[in-house]
Amino acid sequence: MRFLIVLEPIQDGFAVQVPDLGVITHGQTIDEAKRAAIEAIKINLEAYRQVRKKVPAPKPVSTHLKNPDFADLLFAYVDVGRQKAKLVA
User: Fold this and answer.
1) What is the pLDDT along the chain (89 residues), one digit of tens a residue?
2) What is the CA radius of gyration of the chain?
3) Burial of 41 by CB count in 10 Å (0-12 exposed, 13-18 middle, 19+ buried)?
4) DSSP string, 16-56
5) From CA 83, how far away is CA 15, in angstroms rounded?
6) Cα–Cα distance list, 40 to 3, 30, 50, 59 (Å)
7) Rounded to whole angstroms, how far apart are CA atoms 21 and 4?
8) Are strands 85-88 and 13-18 parallel, antiparallel or unpaired?
9) Residue 33 CB: number of other CB atoms within 10 A?
10) 3-state SS assignment for residue 74
């Protein structure tokens, strides 16, 4: 599964949000922030599975691009697979 993430520079690295899931985490570098997002997404998806709830459908990217809270921030995708997670620029 592929998820949109939003990266924001902060004093000690990068905050990262997964707006479709409400996940927030951080890392000292962009790569660390992406890896942290992947792990947080996996935990979030497992929680949905455990309570037998459907994962929210992703909103169109244009919705997030229009969000003033995300103005001037970096957008990227991460691929969270069942076996291996990959970073997608």
Assistant:
1) 899 999 999 999 999 999 999 999 999 999 999 999 999 999 999 999 999 999 999 999 999 999 999 999 999 999 997 544 455 54
2) 13
3) buried
4) EEETTTTEEEEESSHHHHHHHHHHHHHHHHHHHHHTT-PPP
5) 25
6) 12, 15, 15, 19
7) 10
8) unpaired
9) 25
10) strand
pTM, two decimal places: 0.85
Among residues 87, 3, 89, 86, which one has the least CA distance to residue 44?
Answer: 3
Which helix H or strand E contains 64, and what residues bound it? helix 61-65
Count the domains in the chain.
1
Residue 6: name the closest of 34, 31, 29 by CA. 34
Expressed as residue numbers, the domain containing 63 is 2-88
Q: What span, in angstroms and rounded, lies between the C-alpha atoms of 77 and 4? A: 5
Q: What is the CATH number of the domain that holds 80?
A: 3.30.160.250
